[in-house]
Amino acid sequence: MEGINFNQYGVTFKGSGSYVPGQILTNQKISQKVDTSNEWIQSRTGISERRISSVEDNVTEMGYKAALTAIEMTNWDIKTIDLIVLATSTPHDLFGSAPSIQAKLGATNAVAFDLTAACSGFLFALITASQFLKGGSFKRAIVIGADQLSSFVDWNDRRSCILFGDGAGALAIEATNEFDNFIGFDMRTDGGRGSFLNLPSKKNKGSIVDEIDFLNGGFSPIQMNGQEVYKFAVKEVPLILEKLLKKMKYNSDQVDWLLLHQANQRILDSVGERLKIPREKILSNLEKYGNTSAATIPLMMDEAVRDCRIKQNDIIATSGFGAGLSWGAALIKWG
Ligand code: ACO
Q1: What is the best residue among 47, 230, 270 to mutate for testing ligand 1's pocket, by most ligand atoms within 8 Å of CB?
Q2: How far is the centre of ligand 1, averaged over its atoms, from the C-alpha of 153 (Å)?
Q3: Is the Cβ atom of 244 under 6 angstroms away from ligand 1?
Q4: CATH number, domain 183-193+221-333
């Protein structure tokens, strides 16, 4: 599915926010738990530490705090927010966490719902919300990416537990009929390769009465084929970004920032090299937070907006990718 061009309404970016839990799990501390080392993790991934939610923190709390800081950057009355989309694979409530965030914010006139697409979730949610704005249905939206993968990591599996952390990020976007800063997008899934990365339900059979059985709720820890996910990312992400740039008639040297899902520094470097985007234009904070799934893109964006690296009218090429398999790209202009 590909994006349509600006016709009646466009999207403008009004605010960003983020939140990370206080507990810091360093590589040194992980090596007390599994057979690994700071050197191995840093050289293979670029990660030094990650944040871990305590039992008081959850996706609703983190998403609420990120959304609130994004709203504070705008001059909005909270009652004027029409839409809240929460991208998460680890909701506090499987029936949906977005309405709880709506209630905590006091955004009583908004409709709020969850969207699940793993590490592509934030991008898919941003595209979804932007379509409501471009279509004229809603004026103001909050898009949140929040995940708490620490609850689903196998902390005895050194091949995956080193990668993940918890956090949340959010963007405040608004419809305008003057211009469109959501330049274009593309999104893809391939369920045929879905077995490379899963957080599957447990096959835990229960019985209601003698002849009627059922599947007990609950999930097995994350299962990942790291090498296959790596190969998928370094192949598909440059392709989708190249195609999008070409379609929107942009050259890679017009891109001010490459903002990829923060999975592995080697993936970021490889995509940058392929697109001929120099290292200083590749945004990266995975050293501090690891892979926070749906949160990585808005978490990174908020950091770069607040420290004034991202400036008004900067062009950002962004891509999310991960389980599903799913991947997507968007070309946006900040502001
Ligand atoms: N510490 C020390 N040694 C390790 C560790 C570790 N933490 N993990 C694996 N090893 C060992 C392996 O056992 C293997 O040893 P062997 O050769 O004796 O068998 C060796 O290191 C090499 O293992 P590889 O799996 O080939 O290591 P690789 O260089 O591929 O790095 C990694 C592994 C970091 C997981 C990489 O493949 C990767 O980043 N893949 C992408 C994963 C990803 O991004 N997943 C999230 C996607 S987003 C989402 O939707 C949630």
Answers
A1: 230
A2: 15
A3: no
A4: 3.40.47.10
Q: Tens digit of pLDDT for each residue in 286-306? A: 999 999 999 999 999 999 999
Compute, in angstroms, the gap from residue 90 CA to the centroid of ligand 1: 23
Alpha-carbon distance of 329 to 187, in angstroms, equals: 6
Q: Is 291 a catalytic residue?
A: yes
**pLDDT score for 5:** 45
Q: Is 4 exposed, middle or buried (0-12, 13-18, 19+ CB in 10 A)?
A: exposed
CATH H superfamily, domain 10-180: Thiolase/Chalcone synthase (3.40.47.10)
What is the residue extent of each domain of the chain? 10-180, 183-193+221-333
**Is 261 one of the catalytic residues?**
yes
Active-site hit among 58, 119, 161, 264: 119
Band of pLDDT at residue 7, cut at 50, 70 and 90: low
pTM: 0.95
